[in-house]
Structure formats: C-alpha cells, structure tokens
Amino acid sequence: MTNSPMARPSSRQSVSSPAAEGASMRMSPEAAPLRAAPGFLKRGSGPVPGRRFLPQIGGLGLVLLADWLVSPQFFALRLQDGRLFGSVIDVLNRGAPVTLLSLGMTLVIATGGIDLSVGAVIAISGAVAASLVNGGLPVPLTIIAALSAGILCGAWNGLLISVLRIQPIVATLTLMVAGRGIAQLITEGVIVTFVNPSLSEIADGSWFYLPAPVMLVLGMLAVTLVLVRATALGLMIEAVGVNRRASELAGIGARSIIFLVYVWSGLCAAVAGLVLTADIKGADANNAGLWLELDAILAVVIGGTSLLGGRFSVVMAVLGAWIIQAMNTGILLSGFPPEFNLIVKSVVVLVILVVQSPVLGGLNPRSLFCGRGR
Amino acid sequence: MTDWEGGGSALLEIRGLSKKFPGVLALDGVDFTLRAGEIHALLGENGAGKSTLIKILTGVYRRDGGTIRLDGNDICPTDVADAQRLRIGTVYQEVNLLPNLSVAENLFLGRQPLRWGLVDHRGMRRRAAAILADYGLSGVDPATPLGHCPVAVQQVIAIARAVDLSAKVLVLDEPTASLDRREVEMLFRVMRDLRARGIGIIFITHFLDQVYAICDRITVLRNGRLVGERRTDQLSRLDLVTMMLGRAMAAGAPMRRREAVARRGVVAFEGVGKSRYLHPFDLEIGAGEVVGMAGLLGSGRTETARLMFGLERADSGRIFVDGRPVRLRSPKDAVRLAFGYCPEDRKTDGIVGDLSLRANIILALQARRGWMRPLSSREQEAIAQTFITRLDIRTPDADRPIQYLSGGNQQKALLARWLATSPRFLILDEPTRGIDVGAHGEIIALIEQLCAEGLAMLVISSELDEVVSYSDRVLVMRDRRSVRTLEGTDITADAIMAAIAAGA
User: Fold this and answer.
1) Which one of B51, B368, B401 has the shortest CB-CB distance to A251?
2) Which residues of chain B have pLDDT under 70?
3) Distance (Å, rounded) from C-alpha A301 to C-alpha A293?
4) Chain B residue numbers touching A43 (CB-CB < 8 A)
5) In what order do the strands lie in the sheet with B265-274?
6) What is the pLDDT of residues A312-363, one digit of tens each?
7) Which residue in A104, B255, B403, B502 has its CB near the most CB atoms, within 10 A?
C-alpha cells in the first residue's frame, strides 16, 4: 500500500510548503464524499441536469477550502521558466495518472463492468517504453509501441468480456495478476532506467504554461468527450449499462460497445503508464501504478456514475480524481503521515457504498423494481 | 365447486388461500385438493396465480389468508427447507441443483453419509447407484458431474432427490418445458411409478397433450381465482381451454373485415424453425396486413417472434423481404431490415429505465444509423415530440426517465421507438398486457391505424376478442407449432379456441 502515488517518493513530489498548521483539515476528506453522495440518489430522478452534479462541485470546493485553511498559500501561483507552479497545479499534475485512468474507467463502469487491470497495464506500457527507448528506438515509435501495448491489453479484456461473456471482475483480475508478470518479463526482472530527455518530457515538460501531464489529461478528456458525446456512443454505452437485453433488442451492438470501452480503458492506462515512467525515468514492473485501479474506480464513483452501470459523466469522474488528489495533497500539507491518507480514502469508499446500499430504503430507484415477486 | 368422487384420500387441502401483492390480489380465496396417489395438473395463463400458490406451498411466500392442511394438520411453511421437512418437495423447470458436483453428491447434498466424521464417498456412490436404478437410470455413473447429464436426467435426479427426502407431495413446475418427446416419456414413467407409491404430484405444464396423457385431475386458475376442478376424463379440451381463457363460447362480436387483401408479400418466412425450440413455419405478411397469433402460454408464440427478430438463430428455413433472400442472425440485422419488435416483458426487454423518454424513443433509430451518425439534440427532441403528440404519451416532458411513466405510456413509447425507424414489419407481443383500460383501447386503435398506413404487423395476444377484432388472418399455435390459419369470416373466438383445443 505504501506504493500509492502519494506515498511513493518521486521527482514530481514538489510539495513546496511543509505546512503542519491546521488540524481542521481532518474534517474535509469526509465532508467531500458526504456531499458527493446525494448525486447517486438524484441519478435519473431529476430532470434538471445542472443540479445533478452540484454535490461533486461542492465537494471539490470544500476540499479546496480545507486545503486553503491548512496552507494559506495553496492557491498561490507563480510563473517560472515558462511554467506555472503552485499547489493547485501540483494537485492537477500529480493527479494526472488517476485522472487518465478514470476517463476509461468511467466508460467501463457505465456499461456495468469494471477494469481491475489498469494498474498492471500501466506497468506493461511503462516496461515497453523503457525497454524500447533503451534499445535505441526513436521516441515517437516508443510511444506508439507503449500505447499499442495498452490497446492490446484492453482488446484482450474486451474479448474475454464481450465475446466470451466472462464476468468483468474476473476477466480483468487475471490480467491484473498476469500483467505484472508480463511487465517483469519485458524488463527482465529489474527496474529499467533510462536517460532520454525527450521521453522524460512527458512528465517534466510544460506546454502552454502547464505541466505536460496536465495537458495530456485535458487532451485525453477532450478526445474522450468527443468520442462519447459528439457521437451516439455515450447514449449506447448508457443504454447497454442500464439494460443490455433491451438495448440489443433495439439493435444496438452491445458486444462491440463493450469491447470498445475496454480498449479505451487500456489506452488511457497506457498513457498513464507513459506519464509515470517518464516521471521516474524508469520502469518498475512491480510497483508502477500499483493500486491505482482502486483510486480510478473511486474517482468514477465519486463522480456519480453507479457501479450498476448506466448514466455517466466523464467530466465528473475527472472532478472525482481531483477531489481525491486534493485530499491527498491536503493531508501531506497538513503534516499527517501518508498512512492516514489510505485510511481516509477507505472511509470515503465505505461512506459511498453505505449510501448506495439498497437496504437504506429505496435510495436507488432501480432497487424498487428488483426482487419483487410476481 | 368440486364434484370429485372416489380417488385417494385427501393428502393436501388448501382452502380460501389469499395472497396480496402491492396493487394486485394474486390469489383470491383459492381452494385446491390433492389426493394421495394422483397426478394433478394446475393450469392457468400468465398471472393466474399458479406460481404464487406453489410459492406459498413451498414457503417462498407467506399467505395472507386461508388454510393449508397436510394429512389433516395445519401447516405454514416458512421456507423451502421447512417445506421439505413437512415432506413437500419441489422440482423447477431450471434444475436447481449444482451442475459442478457429481450426481451422487447432488442426491445427498446436505445429508452425506458419514464415516468416521468424513464423507463416505464409496457408500454415497453405492446408495446413489441404487436410487438411480430405481428410476431406470442404471446407465448413469453416480460420479459424473450433474452438468454433463442431459436435462431430462437432471430432472429425474432432482425428482429422485426430492422424493428421497421423503416427499409426500411433489411439485413439478414445468419440468418438461425443455425436454424432447422421448425424454418426456422417461419422465412420465417416473411420475407413474411415484403415483403408484402413493405420492401426490402437482404438475404444472403448458402442454395440454401432456395433461391428458398423465394427469388424473385438473384444477384451473384464472386471475387469481379458482375456475374449477375436474377429472381429466370428464373434461373435453375445448372446455378446458374455455376454462383457462374464460370466454363464453357465444362471443362473436361483429368486426371490421378487410375483404381480400392483396397480399403483396413484404416479409416471407419459409420453413423457418429451430430444433427443440420451434417447429418450422411458413408465413407471408403483406403491407397493411395484420396477422394475429393466438395460443396458450408456452405454445410457441413468443418463440416465433424471437426467431422472426433474430433473437434466436433459426437452424432451418429462409427469409425474404420484398422477394429477396435476406440474412437475419441478430436483432441488429432485423433493425437494418426495418423490422421492429415490442417484446412481451416490457421491463426486462423493452424499456431502458434510467434513460429519458426521449432517449428511449430514438434508441432504435440511432442504433440503425450507427454510433458515428448521432442524431442532434434538436432532431431527437423533434422526433420525441412528434411521437409524444401522435401517440398521446402522457409525460411532463421528454426528459423524464421512462421508468417513472405508467405501463401504458411505456408501451406507447416502445411503439414510438419502432415507428421512429419507419419499419416495414412490426411484431407486437402482448401489446395490451398490464396496461390500464384507457391505454388499452388506444393501443388497439393504433394497431388499426398503422395497418391502414401500410405497415405489416404480427400481433401476439391472449385476448381473443382483441385478436379477432384487428386481424386479417389468425395463426393458432400449439405445442411449439403453428397448427391452424384462420382467414376472413372464419376468424371468430370460437374457431380460435377450437383450434387451440383440438387434439394432436
């Protein structure tokens, strides 16, 4: 567990102020999900789209407020060497891998599935990138190869789940386990380090005053949004997630759609893998991206997409990832040990699950229609 | 109400059984008597209350009123295990045993013979072999995993297990639904043996031939009420069907009849069938023609629709659209061919509950266009509004999730979903089931109107008067086979019932 991106020492760990002031911080991480939770209740019940996501926005606001209380310089930005610096930028930057994962994960969860293999896919794409760049392959080709590896992993998952109809949690669990082995085979069991400024640029560089990973997130977010909302794909993903039988009967090719979302998840994981590999200038098959799939799932759930599948919001999942990262950063800034962070995150998951529980009385509209005798 | 004479002594006596679900009275004062050593058919259409009665008897539901006496003692089963202790065994259509365990383990699950505190596998197998031989299954190795046995053998093993748990009352809930003729015979042999041993068997089935082949008595339920109990040898098939469908034979409402429709074959099915699913059938439906389909539950009506829409792959026959042979292997193909299908089970197969009314209406059209060519939100709104107005769908707005609309409005939305694709052929499976009277009439009027607009339609319905009123032709189904086609003035409720009831 100590290998979560927060706890792992990394060159991007640039928390500027070791501020220990403000124990009031303790409140904020819990406040966020409590506020976020009503989003599930409202899901599908209110025709007012704007209000559906108020809880998430409010939650992020609360966490940021707490961060500001902990560290008054939290919102301070300064321009240096053509790049913005500051805690807010830091949150976006270090949250980039999970944010990238959450893009693909949202679509997967919207179909009623789950992808546990993304952490392992990060390791694979990182191993491919580090090994190939050390072998002298030009950087663009290296990147293409790493992304292809991710797409291939996603296609494998998609094949198992859409064609062979294996349960998503089991199918992706196998790759979650096997993927680390594959990555180790690629790196031949050692941490492959490299010196290549162009490849490192993916993590260290800055484009348009922002760190490269943040730009990658925004880029991938835009592409994902175009993919699902400028086409009918989003509607079809939601339809399949809510009722696969009815959707197939209406002529939707549920199989291709499910295949596609896992491919997309694989691709997003590969991009995240490139960011993490470029960051540490090496590929660690054992630890790269370890447990990140859980953060990504959490981000999606905080973003108001139900694990039962159905209506989703990519933007809100990104917001969810930022909430998590703002929480992490806040705890670091407050001087609490990082272990505390893991516990807080678990409490968050628990609160969300409890709020979703159908036992709590018709909170989830769908529970009203299940399990009733005829 | 019961005029039975002789027979065995009453083993199970149910009197005045009632069960209420929110909004429905599933059982309303039902009486049922089962005697030792008889096979008693429990019959009725969907919603008649058969499953509710069985579920109360086996402890799945609690009753709201009435008494159940077994061997003269009042009983109140609290769960399935309790019912078993009371010596009531049940075998369902889907065998609810464990396919990955061996035949012997399934027979002795939860009561394995022990030896020094461990399961005595050898002893268990030996005893299992003896039981199997009893049931004429000496060819089955007790060590084979149950899942490797044919369904019929699994059924018999489930029965053997239930009886070996010392059942006095055995409930067989559609055990023959997925068996072929030879397997049914095997099951019947077992049932006759058990009858001879004095066990009372409640047999639920949709196959009337089987009722007449093996049952001593018949009890018919309809809409949660007892219609009557009769001895099989004193009840004609026609009377039985009348009891089940509840229609006075004199019913023959005057109806609109289009004389001599020019049957320009829009869609033609030639010898389309699937083994163990539906016997091959021929059907040609022309533009502006409504073909009604009648038959009892389980007669193959929905199966026909599913084959026609590519939900099941036919293993024989050819399909033509406008005289050209077409490929139909999936619903996607069907949608591409401009077919539409409103399924019987709106909730699981029809609506996409969490999505808006608008999304539900445009779903099939969007699926046909493919994901690359999305309908703009303005187009979506226009289509949705057109059909909300045209079909008079009552909703505050098109954004309302469809699950919050009433059944009738959901049904209209599903119709709208297909009409938006400008279909040439529309299949409606029980379009008026479970919707209120007002919407009922509107749907019927819509069928007439769509037909006048040149749509070819196949309408499946249990409501015979309805079928008679809108059909140009009526196909009668029985035992997974199309047995009769009625045309023109031959279409009457009487004729349909006679065809349903006719012997094999």
Assistant:
1) B368
2) 1-8, 22-24, 46-47, 93-95, 177-178, 247-265, 434-438, 503-504
3) 12
4) 354
5) B278-286, B265-274, B316-321, B324-326
6) 999 999 998 998 898 888 888 888 787 777 787 677 666 655 665 556 543 4
7) A104
Tell me the domain boundaries of chain A.
23-75+83-363
SS3 B217: strand
Are the CB atoms for B305 and B427 separated by under 8 Å? yes
A308 touches chain B (CB under 8 A): no
pLDDT digits (tens, 9 = 90+) for A272-315: 999 999 999 999 988 888 889 999 998 998 888 888 888 899 99
Residue A311 with chain B: CB contacts under 8 Å:
354-355
- pLDDT value at A2 more than 90: no
B207 with B165, same domain: the answer is yes
Which of A120, A126, A96, A139 has the alpha carbon at shortest distance from A191? A126
How far does the CA of residue A336 sit from the closest CA of chain B (Å)?
42
Mutate to test the interface with A, among B352, B377, B410, B426 (most CBs of A within 10 A): B352
Three-state DSSP at B250 gives: coil
Same domain, B412 and B450: no
Please compute the mean of the pLDDT values over residues A6-10 and round it to a whole number: 39
Q: Pick from A242, A251, A369: which is nearest to B364 by CB?
A: A251
Instruction: Tally A–B CB contacts below 8 A.
Output: 113
CATH number, span A23-75+83-363: 1.10.3470
Which of residues 135 through 194 in chain A touch B, CB cutoff 8 A?
A: none
Task: Kindly provide the ipTM of the predicted complex, given to two decimals.
Answer: 0.75
Same domain for B308 and B394, yes or no, is no
Q: Which tokens hold the place of A285?
A: 């098959």
In this structure, how many other beta carbons lie within 10 angstroms of the beta carbon of residue A145? Answer: 17
CA-nearest residue of chain A to B397? A47
Domain holding B299, by residue range, is: 264-338+423-504
Number of independent structural domains in chain B? 4
